Amino acid sequence: MRVAVALSCGVDALSGRAAPVLSELHAIGLARQLSADLVGVHVGAAMPLLRDYAAYGLNRIDVLMDNAAEERGAGLVGAALAAWLRANTDIRILVTGHRACGGLDSGLVPFEVAHALDWAVVSDVAEVVGASDTEEKSSGALQVLQARPRGVRRPVFIEGACVLAAHDRTGNVPVRVHAIGRAAHIENVHLTTTSDEGQDNGVQGDIRPWRARPRLMSGTSDATKGSGNVLVAPSADEAARAIMNHLRQLGLGPSGAASRNVTQ
Amino acid sequence: MTGRIRRSPFAERAARRQPGQAGRLRYVMGGISNHVMDGRRRDPRAERAYHTVPGGAGRRRIVWGSARAGAAVAVAAEVAPRMIRVENPAMLVLAAPDFEDMRLSRFDRQIIGAARLVADGGKGAVGILCPADLPEEQQAALAQAGADRLFFLPPGQDNPDRQARAVLHWFQQSGAAHILFPESPEGADRARRVTVAGGCSFMGAIQAFSLRAVIAPCHAMRRERVVQVLPQVMTLEEDRVAAYAGLAHEIMGMDYPADSERKGPEQTGRVRFGDAVAGDPASLPLGEAPFVVSAGNGVHDFTQFAAMVRVLGGTPGASRVVCDAGHMPRQTQVGASGTVLDAACYLAVGISGAPQHLQGIGRVENIIAVNTDLHAAMVARASLAIIADAQDVMPAVLRLAQQEGEQSCG
């Protein structure tokens, strides 16, 4: 089973220099859990940064030189990837990052690819639980864990071909081996996509330097104040009972969250 | 003789006479004898309201004096709670809140507030996409939050494609101009599915929202994109738009899904969600943990502390002093130079609460503090504070938690 990893060649948020995107490294980690036969795919011009990505365990990277997608229109990247996946019918799973880091960063690409190919798509994937290693595609049932806030994990069962989008914070980064990056085979692939294939759903707008926008006060008034239930010099048992009662009201404690399934 | 009511000073004076202490008579001059007073101060407004009676032609009169013609309460009852009705909207704006646990969260209210903002700008109505099994009181909360119409989604939370199709169906059928989602994990996923399925214009993770422009970061948060014409599908970050705080709106219409959609749990979905499982608290990253138990300088026995954390089902944390001393690993440090928590509850054992530490727990709602100092900052911030030595309290908590754990297992 071959698994493709979409690479966006992002920039570092602090310095603005080309750097691997963390969630794409998580994506390579996910792909390595799925299969040993990995291929990276990048839409745009070939960059030396691709060797950095390859060092995390990609033997081959295809660079899709699509002249239309070079402006990095959101819809066009998805269309180019879909066209490449159509040409490579042995690939049934595409793993992507959470969102690009250096383009329009809309996070639409995995959904666009899935829509164009009529594949399933799952976002915020933290871990692969079980993949059927059988070659036949119809029985390919895949179980992954989706990361939800506060450490909750939700199992997702997927049938057939799919696009998995890695979570941006949770995941494992594979070991980086410089020699693999040097030896990786980076190949230019020319695709001919019709220009109207990709729907351009990004409203372009003006691009300006970013500045911090105001937020509402996030702390609710009672959270910052504290309701002020103070027990002064209680006996140890009294204090313990007060703590346990308080925890029980919140649904925590020894009989609480640890053993309980949290649906959210 | 005119028919006018005349004051009778002697009678008024007699009405104000009250027996005081030691059998002496007092005159209560300010207050009215049959009016409830709290005894310390006059309340001129209450007195005035008490004397206000409905007069002819709907005008209110104030009748001073001992004779009170009518009940002033009736006047107050005439003012019914007003609601805003949007009868013929010029446009429709949809909002699709998450309804986590079937409850309207703060974030959900902000999304509805943003939709209200757009709708009010174009004399339009706000439609809410909500699950069919939403409880009654939450529908009332929706009216308070500024909803005009409800569109119910068919059940089937475990199939994201089907949910997105239902949302898109309502979006297209209602002819709404925009649809807003929260940029929460669920909302972000749903918005993007709807966008690609419907071929809509899209802008995600909006940080500044107004009728004139929406602004979202791009290029790795080094640039921002300003769009003057509002896109069809938008997702907003939390705390960027204020929730609607005006008069409640009346919910004028409810639309239910067609029967064919409501029934068919056809197993065509290639993606199926299972039941969510809470992570193992001992191995969770601190930033994700829902319940953190943290040790400070007041803790000396760290073996006991670790046992207590394990029994309580929490994730261990520590203050900087403890990490510096090497009693706890550096990745457990909470605060400005450590981890900023997103927990629901924080148990601070022997932590006084330096400002740098309090920064790390800014978002935590429930804090329990165990500290010897009554005037510590952590005690002021806590919802339950125990003024005692942490070393004395820990064994008692450990014992009690072990007992409870055995009871719940057995």
UniProtKB/TrEMBL annotation, chain A:
Residues 24-133 form the Electron transfer flavoprotein alpha/beta-subunit N-terminal domain. It comes from the Bacteria. Keywords: Electron transport, Transport. SUPFAM superfamilies: Adenine nucleotide alpha hydrolases-like. InterPro entries: ETF_a/b_N, Rossmann-like_a/b/a_fold. The keyword Electron transport applies. This is Electron transfer flavoprotein alpha/beta-subunit N-terminal domain-containing protein. It comes from Acetobacter suratthaniensis.
From TrEMBL, chain B:
Residues 101-243 form the Electron transfer flavoprotein alpha/beta-subunit N-terminal domain. InterPro entries: DHS-like_NAD/FAD-binding_dom, ETF_a/b_N, ETF_a/FixB, ETF_asu_C, Rossmann-like_a/b/a_fold. It comes from the Bacteria. The keyword Acetylation does not apply. The keyword Signal does not apply. Residues 286-361 form the Electron transfer flavoprotein alpha subunit C-terminal domain. Pfam families: ETF, ETF_alpha. Keywords: Electron transport, Transport. Belongs to the ETF alpha-subunit/FixB family. This is Electron transfer flavoprotein subunit alpha/FixB family protein. It comes from Acetobacter suratthaniensis.
